[in-house]
Design a protein that fits this description.
Layout (H helix, E strand, L loop, with lengths): L13 E3 L6 E2 L4 E2 L3 E3 H24 L7 H20 L7 H17 L18 H30 L9 H6 L1 H9 L1 H29 L4 H37 L4 H20 L6
Antiparallel strand pairs: 1-4, 2-3
């Protein structure tokens, strides 16, 4: 039980680099000159395993009859490609490596928690630290904003915050603050969803390991409970959370194109108007 027991969840000691400077954001203190060693080590391990899996899979690919592993991976890639085609567009091929890499990394980071990491304080589930999940969510958010400006243009990007487009401008102007808030909270909710589920799993394991300290006869029950819960939490909940993060990333790219049809329609209408005026013969009195 000593190796299955988790340390108190939520403890990620900061290692200062140039002092304890921070920005007081009222609801949280942002330490911009410090880092958490356990999160960096755990995420580095997850990155190494993710790269190892990717290179191993690449080395097993064959142009002829695919093996079982290749068939499964081709099915998953085709599924993600289909999601992107239906949610975003067919020509947004750059989204596939982004979404697939994020999904695989989160899956690996979550599955590593099944192993007894309690023997050292520098190995903890990487996604149990809000700094980790928020960093990934911010990266997704910034790439989505870049894509929205690229597709819609600056004018269309600003106009996107005036939805719903079918309403009158008097009504749409009042909804601009809500649309801006909705966009800003996307990385917050994306990060908190993943962090909250992984943290809750750690908390459950921690409570189960405390049970024998109160009732010694529950030691076997506690051991079995920890093993069963970790299997469920890591392989089921961890997989679901990796899929949800990847799916929401794709959905956000799709939402970044909102208003594109209206912009294209207005552009075609303006072009048609110019053509009509150009082809209409001048009348003489």
């Amino acid at each position: 039980m000593r190796y299955l027991a988790e340390a108190a969840p939520g403890t990620h000691p900061l290692t200062p680099v140039c002092g304890d400077q921070y920005l007081n954001l009222l609801v949280v203190k942002f330490y911009y000159c410090a880092f958490t060693v356990d999160t960096l080590v755990s995420s580095a391990l997850a990155i190494a395993v993710t790269l190892g899996i990717a290179f191993f899979v690449a080395s097993r690919l064959t142009p002829g009859v695919p093996g079982k592993l290749q068939m499964v991976l081709e099915f998953l890639v085709s599924y993600v490609r289909g999601l992107i085609r239906e949610t975003v567009t067919e020509d947004a091929t750059f989204i596939l490596p982004i979404a697939a890499t994020i999904g695989l990394y989160i899956l690996v980071a979550n599955w590593l928690d099944f192993f007894p990491l309690g023997f050292t304080s520098i190995l903890k589930p990487a996604n149990s630290d809000l700094n980790q999940t928020l960093a990934m969510a911010i990266v997704v958010f910034l790439v989505v904003q870049w894509y929205s400006i690229k597709v819609l243009g600056l004018r269309g990007y600003v106009r996107r915050f005036t939805k719903p487009f079918e309403m009158s401008w008097a009504f749409r102007i009042g909804l601009i603050p809500l649309n801006i808030i909705e966009e800003i909270v996307k990385p917050i909710t994306l990060s908190l969803r993943l962090f909250g589920n992984i943290f809750a799993g750690l908390l459950m394991v921690y409570l189960l390991t405390l049970l024998p300290s109160a009732f010694a006869w529950t030691t076997p029950i506690s051991a079995v409970g920890v093993a069963v819960w970790k299997a469920f939490d890591v392989f089921f909940v961890g997989t679901i959370q990796a899929f949800i993060f990847m799916l929401l990333t794709i959905i956000y790219f799709g939402q970044a194109r909102e208003g594109l049809e209206e912009e294209m329609g207005r552009g075609h209408a303006a072009a048609s108007g110019h053509e009509v005026r150009a082809t209409t013969p001048a009348t003489t009195s």
